[in-house]
Design a protein that fits this description.
Blueprint: H1 3-19, H2 25-38, H3 43-57, H4 64-84, H5 91-105, H6 113-118, H7 120-140, E1 144-145, H8 152-156, E2 160-161, H9 163-184, E3 192-193, E4 199-200, H10 202-214, E5 215-216, E6 226-227, E7 240-241, H11 249-262, H12 269-282, E8 286-288, E9 291-292, E10 295-298, E11 305-315, E12 325-334, H13 341-352, H14 356-364, H15 368-375
Parallel strand pairs: 7-11, 9-12, 10-12
Antiparallel strand pairs: 1-2, 3-4, 5-6, 8-9, 11-12
Helix pairs in contact: 1-3, 2-3, 2-4, 2-7, 4-5, 4-7, 4-9, 5-10, 5-13, 7-9, 11-12
InterPro entries: Bacterial_PTS_Sugar_Transport, PTrfase/Anion_transptr, PTS_EIIA_type-2_dom, PTS_EIIC_2, PTS_IIA_fruc, PTS_IIC_fruc
Protein name: PTS system fructose-specific IIC component
Organism: Paenibacillus brasilensis
Length: about 375
Amino acid sequence: MIGSPVAQLFEALTGWLAGMQGTSSILLALILGAMISFDMGGPVNKVAFLFGSAMIGEGNYGIMGPIAVAICIPPISMGLAAMINKRKFAPAEREAGKATFTMGLFGITEGAIPFAAQDPLRVIPSIMVGSMVGSVIAMMGNVGDKVAHGGPIVAVLGAVDNVVMFFVAVIVGAAVSVVMVSLLKKDITTVEPTASGDEITGNSAAELLASTAITNNGLADSEQAVHIEKLTDIVTMDLINLNLEGITQDAVVDEMIGALEKTGAVSSANDFKQAILDREKESSTGIGMNIAIPHGKSEAVLKPSVVFGIKRSGVDWKILDGSEAKLIFMIAVPRNSKENAHLKVLQMLSRKLMDDHFREALLAVTTKEEAYQLLDQVH
């Protein structure tokens, strides 16, 4: 009753976007930018993204170019705004902004979700306008993108036409969002009454944001909340495999899901694997530098967990920089989770894995104890 009308709506939207190609390119860019940033990885975002991906298959790279710009503006702009604006963001938010900015570099739009969830009426319009501006600049600058991914990483790896205009579009769009959110957001010292008559300070709101980003209350059969302060809160020794045997991506996925099933983290390996495969269909979770971070939300997941595996000889993960996946982190999150535990984990990993020495140290470990000690540094 629900799926069919929704599918028809999305098909109509896709057809509408396709029909606009020969009319106004600027109007199309405005619409695509707004759709990408509206729900940051949600259904509206996916319609625009898949439309751009389909155009790549037809040899039209000029649609994915503006989308690639819009994809990274929300996390980059919110990361910058949080880091530079002390009056609007508390220390906890400014610290989270560093990871959000890093996620933007990798084209992970969802990095801005915790900020949008905490203050949607001010944040969402700000990032939508910035993404729309960036998309228009990219369209006018003939920016093209040959891969179904976004963010500066695709430009650095040579998948973008007119790289200079790509970065101009990202910088201007992000600047617009930073200015808007800085003007719209209230100072953190503002006191607002709660529904119960109590008062919440700006600092308390910041703590709520941090709690939202790192807490998971989604266990179907338990009242217990899982607080994720660091990666080892959801990684056990049994979820570490230093010698993955699989020689294909599919075999490695099965092997890592098997570890989740043995530890009781998932109730159905097949159901969770489908969630992983569905995410891979959208775009590869190989982020570069021999790293892959497959992740999925599923009803089969009983508790948030992360499997860490090493494939020293590498496995093809369709990574943009052409490298093979050697360090693989599989994130499993319950579908009914009210929070975004996978975003917190992605934030932590994105920031730490930028460190060359940390990656080299992980590849050099010889025991699970050594690996666990290193993973304990991811927070």
